[in-house]
Design a protein that fits this description.
22% of the residues are buried. The protein contains 3 helices and 4 strands. The model has no long low-confidence stretch (mean pLDDT 95). By secondary structure, it is an alpha+beta fold. The protein has a 4-stranded mixed sheet. The chain has a single domain, classed as 2-Layer Sandwich (Translation Initiation Factor IF3), CATH 3.30.110.40. It starts with a helix and ends with a strand. Strand 1, helix 2 and strand 2 form a beta-alpha-beta unit.
């Protein structure tokens, strides 16, 4: 997805993990993915640099679709769709 498309995406679930360091954001995402249905979008907010790599790898490994990342002021907005 383009940055513009991501900015206009409304997530079904938002996980705010900005106050945690690796592996906190990934653990929060793993827990939250069970709270949404297949095809729904989850947005993970994280200030941890490692999360930019970890979430896409984990999503692909588990059969989810990584949609993209937007860099905001001081944190990342990472989007994925549950498989």
């Amino acid at each position: 997805m383009t940055t513009e498309e991501l900015q206009n995406t409304t997530a079904d679930k938002v996980v705010d993990a900005r106050g945690t360091a690796c592996p906190g954001p990934l653990l929060a995402a793993k827990k939250a993915i069970g709270e949404i249905s297949s095809g729904q979008v989850m947005e993970i907010l994280s200030a941890d640099e490692g999360t930019r790599r970890d979430i896409p790898k984990w999503a692909t490994k588990k059969g989810h679709e990584y949609l993209g990342t937007i860099e905001d002021s001081g944190f990342f907005r990472i989007f994925m769709k549950k498989g």
